[in-house]
Amino acid sequence: MGARSGGPSSGAGRSGGLPGLTSHRPTQEILTVEAEPGLVVEDATGSFCGAVIRADVREVVLEDAAGRRRLFPMKPASFLFEGRLATLTPPRPRESPEQQRSASGSVRGDDRRAKVASPHRIWVEGVHDAAIVERVWGHDLRVEGVVVEPLHGADVLVEAAHEFGPGPDRKLGVLVDHLVTGSKETRIAEGLRRDLGPASEHVLVLGHPYVDIWEAVKPAAVGIREWPTVPRGIEWKKGVCAALGWGDERDGARRVLGAVSTWNDLQTPLITAMEQLIDFVTT
Length: 283
Hints:
The protein is α/β, with parallel strands linked by helices.
């Protein structure tokens, strides 16, 4: 017998293989995003979120806020960017790299390669703080050989600083949230200066007035009019996510970190504090 054509069971002329049914294709748009160093993405399974370290046509290396690195194949629709499914592409070569500027606004030159890590450190309160600092000042810090480490809360600052042992060749800069008159963070910073004695001259604690590092990101960068006011007794990030309909804290972190690309996305007090801390530990 010859080949059958157009019979009811063949599905010919239909969008699906069964008579009377039409196929339902996914309508979600898949973004195409250039994998530039510093771009924050998540793998499609939600198991790893980090900034692009390097990428080529075959693979991309991501580094999370804790410094862990993982390699992923450059497969289509294998990543999430700002919560949306995305395909990463290798970064395009730039015509004049010597004139490029880093996310912090400093000139990025080919002749300035990253140094071996110095003994000096900058500490921030948590992994979200570290991710934002890396996104904006990562290039500058690598050039200077300065490592940024998360403290996981200001409460451990005094003990950790004693263990660090600051000195003339081992400076310590600390960025804390909510450094305002009467706050817990301000009391901790004042207590640190007393406890360290003469060694305190090799430690600089600065901060910003915002309750959390997220609030130091300009609302417009995140696509909101203003950061919501969270009632006392409710953990700030959870309250923000609930008020904005962002899901859980992990979803909120993806939105905030994905919104930051340069210093223009940050409030001035955070920018000023970080620039002063970098100057302190590098001079």
